[in-house]
Design brief:
Elements: H1 2-33, H2 42-70, H3 73-100, H4 110-134, H5 141-163, H6 184-200, H7 207-226, H8 235-270, H9 281-298, E1 302-309, H10 312-319, H11 321-338, E2 344-347, E3 352-357, H12 362-378, E4 387-394, H13 401-432
Antiparallel strand pairs: 1-3, 1-4, 2-3
Amino acid sequence: MGVVSRSNNRSATSVLLSHAVALTLIFIAAMWLRLVKVELDPDLQGYLQVITGLLAFIFGAVTLVRFQGTQDRISLILGAGFLLSGTLLIASSVFFFQFMQYKPKPILSAPVILWVGRMILAVLLVVALLVENFLPRSRHPRGEIAGALFTVMGFTYLITAAVRHLPQEVSSHPIALIPNPQQLLPAAIFLISLLWYRRRLAVESSEFDRSIYMATWLNFAAQLVISQSQQFLDAPFLFSQGLVVISYSVTLGGALLDNARLFEQVRHLAVSDPLTGLANYRRLLDVLEMETERTNRSGRPFAVLLLDLDGLKKINDTHGHLVGSRAICRLAEILRIHCRSIDTAARYGGDEFALVLRETEEDQAKLVVERIHDLMTIEPEKPPLSASIGIAIYRGDGERIEKLLSAADQHLYAEKAKRTKKMAATVASRRRAPRD
């Protein structure tokens, strides 16, 4: 434990140092960019604002969809926050396009709107963590989504109205070490979020969480850079806006990847048995439908094995239902490990299983049955397992799936009857045997 703790401490220290070095280099690069003269291009900045706003809108929509499924309020607040941020970004782009029409005055409000948008995003990142800490789950996701959307619309109106009464130009100190000190306020809030999200990664480390952490880091770096901006649309300002665009792209990419993972989990749960992890009855019918179509086209038969675990009621009565459930899982594990990758093992019912063997004749299916019996015989865990197995072969004669399963079921019960008679005869012979 001590070695693991020291290793974790070294890893955390190395991560902290790497972040500190990267931020220092970015800050030095921003100071150097103060000396670089760039041509004033409000048109380019306007398009950047539009692109970033669209990324924010898409991320907000994707995150709200995620909230509908996971009901974690951090997704709700972040989705609403990015929708509001995207609205402000689109609004600020209007000022840049107006500037291109030789109306320089409206652009003076753009820095204020951008600063307000940065403040709102920084604060909502912290609020999301606070809400997750105290009220992590929602019981009424649809109602809360509707409330969040109305809140975004209300704040958009209030902020737009308030900007008209704010000072249009922010004072700069071109010679100072920090020409734009007011940008350090959202930077401080982003730093709080960054440290908090870093701690959160120890518990939650999905693509979504890692992308939010990376985006917070980029936004903090962007605020450090823009604090070096001496005038609007200079080189540090453009560098900062580039980092912001990258941060929104990262969050969107992480959200899309995480949603894809969640949808894959849902799809897997929809077609798998929760106890054994094998395919469920619904998935079994889909596979049988595909295999019958394949056989009808190619003429190559496939086999269906139905397995019934012997004596499950006796195992439950003697050892308890936990051991009985474990017995079901043991048989499922044998089928999962020892069937081919092209075959499908499914839980057919309570203690019944099905195995679909692609392109398999009856003699080959019988060899599989023998192998399953042998594996259960040598299985070391107690109580010992045995199963009755029925076989049905589909040769492309157009019979229905229900008839195929019925044939396998009849063969299964015939085999079970044979095994029962054999066991009864064995017990009777032991009772008749003379004792020494």
